[in-house]
Amino acid sequence: MSTLEIKNLQVSVAVEGGFTEILKGVDLTIRSGETHAIMGPNGSGKSTLAYSVAGHPKYTVTGGSVTLDGVDVLAMTVDERARAGLFLAMQYPVEVPGVSVTNFLRTAVTAVRGEAPKVRTWVGEVREAMKALNMDAAFAERNVNEGFSGGEKKRHEILQLELLKPKIAILDETDSGLDVDALRIVSEGVNRVKENSDLGIMLITHYTRILRYIKPDFVHVFAQGRIVEEGGPELADKLEENGYAEYVTA
Amino acid sequence: MSTLTTNYLTPTGREEAWRFTPLHRLGGLLDFDVAVIEGQSLAPTNSLPAGVTFSAIAADGFESEYQPSDAAVIRGREVVSQISLLKVGKEIEVSDPIFLQRQGGENSPSFSRLVISLEPHSRATVVIENQGSVTLGEEIEIRLSAGSNLTFISLQEWERDAIHMAGHHAIIGKDAALTSFEISVGGSLVRLLPTVEYSGPGSSAQLNGLYFATNGQHLENRIHVDHNVPLAKSRVNYKGALAGENARSVWIGDVYIRAAAEGTDTYELNRNLLLSDGARADSVPNLEIETGEIVGAGHASTTGRFDDEQLFYLQSRGVPADIARKLVIRGYFSEILNLIGIPSISERLMDRIDTELEKVGE
Ligand SMILES: Nc1ncnc2c1ncn2[C@@H]1O[C@H](COP(=O)(O)OP(=O)(O)O)[C@@H](O)[C@H]1O
Ligand SMILES: [Mg+2]
After folding, report:
1. pLDDT tens profile A197-227
2. Is residue B115 part of a domain?
3. What is the largest CA-CA distance in chain B?
4. Would the CB atoms of B320 and A56 count as touching at under 8 Å?
5. Which residues of A touch B330 (CB under 8 A)?
6. Strand partners, A68
7. Parent domain of B255
């Protein structure tokens, strides 16, 4: 049982001539086994929240706290956060030229598990996980995210989720750029991990369609750098109908 | 021991060819008041296959097939009396690489000459392994007869105090092909002149290079491709990375397409990765074209900084920053190293690059 606790989180980014505040006090608690949908319009600060929890150097935390099972996450380096059990599936995964998927996955799993996986079981483990995500075996020899289609990038993120087995996963617009088949495959991957490991999920999305596949326990509406409304799955239906207009003040 | 009466070759630093080179760091190689010796320490490390010979021949009476213009090469010709000759006989195809090892350790500035000669329709891979501490002026003349195919790999894995100035000149015959790798991961000052000319149509050169300069190192590559015949091809691809205070690289890529060289197809590329602020990479591609009747001619040069987004991505997967950095740099160089096609060498070079990178922080 793990708990990610975000309290009154305030985050700024450097802009020309100073800082601009993007997150204006975010409170959110995610426990193992819970799925929280974070829904909000473009530019409301959803990715900023995701990156800040992961520790991206571009974002400066100016107030509040983030803890995982009571331990200060903000004091950890980016890699320490991952090894502590946090995972971020990125909206725009980064290309790493010349580094093969196999090499990358093995290096990451070795770091997170604290020891290199046994060669014999490892090969099978990767193959199985890739098969489940409908990924061709040849994919493993390609360079990380280099020339991947939008769908391949997202599958690759979920492949890592399956292999790294985090406690809490933040999925930032994993649904964007996916066709219906890919969305189903990726969603099934997320659900599988959740079943097997009691994963806690922060599911960031702009649209409701992924919620047909990944059922949220809680829905939080995000606008202008903070959570403006919270509820159960029914809140997503309301958003589907009315959009975000009522939350966005000009 | 040689005494020279002329010093007209001694560069002043005003010459185009020397304007990037720190002349006070040449270890006396071009100082005509400094006594120099003949160095003959290249030797095959394994027994040579049938049809391949390695021998010493007298420089006196040996006819070079080109006129050198570089001061270090010219001085070498005045100093060296014995030339090493590696010869691959007609139609001999050697699959295993031929390793020629040079062990440093000579205190005096020394000069050496090697000729690699591939007879018609032969094929070989030659690896020059340079290790240790030297002050060396070197000439390698590569003669590729019709239809021959050479992969030439020169590894500069010198100790950090080595000084190495070299001319590696290839003359590529009809339908012959050269693939070269100039790899510099050691030395204090390394200045290489990989130069190419052609002696028949259908010939091609693929010139690859890699350099990794750290604190205070000067690694220079001056490529010169002379498209002097019709229907020849050249590709140049050099990749460098620099880290630490006063790490320095120079890359010059001169390609000339003469009026006679119709049907030329050439492209050259140099990329540099700056890992710290105190490092500097100069990159000067230069294309001169005397005929419009060509297949293609182009060049590109990029110098970029380390991509922090890549580092973040790897770290967000639990990989510690130092390992992530190494992985990114390995990835960057892998394009060239994988082309070498000798895994033990690629691995060794990667390890050396890792080690040099670790030392930068100290
Ligand atoms: N590095 C940055 N520099 C300047 N502004 C930024 C930066 N990152 C995000 N922003 C701004 O912060 C706001 C929130 O962006 P983001 O977190 O990406 O929103 P979302 O993911 O909800 O679309 C936007 O107005 C965006 O322009
Ligand atoms: Mg976003």
Report:
1. 999 999 999 989 999 999 999 999 999 999 9
2. yes
3. 65
4. no
5. 98-99
6. A4, A71
7. 16-306
Instruction: Give this complex's ipTM.
Output: 0.97
Give the ligand whose atoms come closest to the C-alpha of residue A224: 1
Q: Residue B30 and residue B72: Cα distance in Å, rounded?
A: 7
Distances (CA, A) of B61 to A182, B72, B89, B95, B143: 73, 21, 22, 33, 17
Alpha carbon of residue B167 to chain centroid:
8
**Domain count along chain B:** 1
Which residues on chain A are in Cβ contact (under 8 Å) with B316? Answer: 54-55, 78-79, 81-82, 87-88, 90
Distance CA(A157)–CA(A144), nearest Å, equals 10
Q: Is A55 on the interface with B (CB under 8 A)?
A: yes
d(CA B337, CA B346): 5
Residue A236 to residue A62: CA distance in whole angstroms: 31
For residue B42, being part of any structural domain is answered with yes
Q: How far is A106 from chain B (nearest CA, A)?
A: 10
Residue B211 lies in a domain: yes
Spans in chain A with pLDDT lower than 70: 250
Measured between CA atoms, how close is A188 to chain B, in angstroms?
A: 22
Q: Which one, of A50, A9, A25, lies nearest residue A173 by Cα?
A: A50
A215 at interface of B, judged by CB pairs closer than 8 A: no
A137-143, Cβ contacts within 8 angstroms, sequence gap of 24 or more: A139/A101, A140/A100, A140/A101, A140/A102, A140/A105, A141/A100, A141/A101, A141/A102, A142/A100, A142/A101, A143/A95, A143/A96, A143/A97, A143/A98, A143/A99, A143/A100, A143/A101, A143/B331
CB A211 within 8 Å of CB A37: yes
> Which of A13, A15, A22 to mutate for ligand 1's pocket (most ligand atoms within 8 Å of CB)?
A22
Q: A93: CA distance to ligand 2 center in Å?
A: 12
Q: Are B222 and B192 in contact (CB under 8 A)?
A: yes
Instruction: Give the pTM.
Output: 0.91
The DSSP 8-state label assigned to residue A201 in this structure reads E
HEC letters along A4-27: EEEEEEEEEEEECCEEEEEEEEEE
The closest of A163, A219, A218 to A192, measured between CA atoms, is A163
Contact A78 B312 (CB under 8 A): yes
Residue in A40, A15, A3 with CA at minimum distance from that of residue A226: A40
Distance from CA of B2 to the nearest CA of A (A): 49
- Is B333 an interface residue toward A (CB < 8 Å)? yes
Task: Decide if B237 is inside a domain.
Answer: yes
pLDDT tens readout for residues A72-101? 999 999 999 999 999 999 999 999 999 999
- Which of B316, B319, B327 comes nearest A54 by C-beta? B316
Name the residue among B48, B9, B49, B52 with its Cα closest to residue B29.
Answer: B9
